Structure to design on (183 residues):
């Protein structure tokens, strides 16, 4: 691996915002292209960093990509339930793809979630066409949660985001009955 995963520095916000915006635009992920209102959200890394944790994959001083990690109950959460962290806005620059940065960013979010007290899972939304991302999620143990799929623009038909989830805490075997009497 020829990059590191770390928190984004304020001087990297503009570069990461543009990487994220261009990834969504060039991959055809914005229904309204250049006029899509979500484009401003993708570019505004400062707003994300004020409400969540923004991580980057960086090689020397070059940002390759980034992701937003929303701890349990964070204000940027869209689909997380109590006790769940959420991954948002994962993007890798086109010229940096295929180097493992996307998977490393998702792994970093999962590791971060494991360190959050009482965090029992991680969720994320993705589009049907993001097949490379789906493969990453599957490799890391995420499973589809079709009952949680949703439409971010309910006033428009035909927009459905897929939900993936990963459980972090296995409740383990039931605690033994201290009296040894059973139920």
């Amino acid at each position: 691996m020829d990059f590191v995963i770390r928190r984004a520095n304020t001087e990297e916000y503009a570069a990461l915002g543009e990487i994220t915006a261009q990834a969504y635009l060039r991959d055809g992920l914005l229904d309204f292209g250049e006029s899509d209102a979500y484009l401003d959200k993708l570019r505004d890394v400062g707003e994300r960093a004020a409400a969540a944790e923004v991580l980057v994959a960086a090689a020397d001083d070059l940002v390759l990509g980034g992701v937003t990690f929303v701890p349990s109950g964070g204000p940027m959460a869209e689909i997380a339930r109590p006790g769940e962290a959420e991954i948002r806005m994962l993007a890798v620059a086109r010229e940096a793809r295929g180097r493992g940065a996307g998977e490393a960013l998702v792994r970093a979010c999962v590791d971060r979630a494991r360190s959050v007290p009482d965090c029992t899972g991680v969720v994320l939304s993705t589009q049907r066409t993001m097949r490379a991302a789906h493969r990453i999620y599957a490799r890391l143990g995420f499973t589809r949660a079709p009952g949680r799929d949703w439409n971010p623009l309910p006033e428009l038909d035909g927009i459905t985001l897929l939900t993936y989830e990963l459980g972090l805490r296995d409740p383990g075997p039931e605690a033994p009955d201290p009296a040894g009497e059973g139920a």
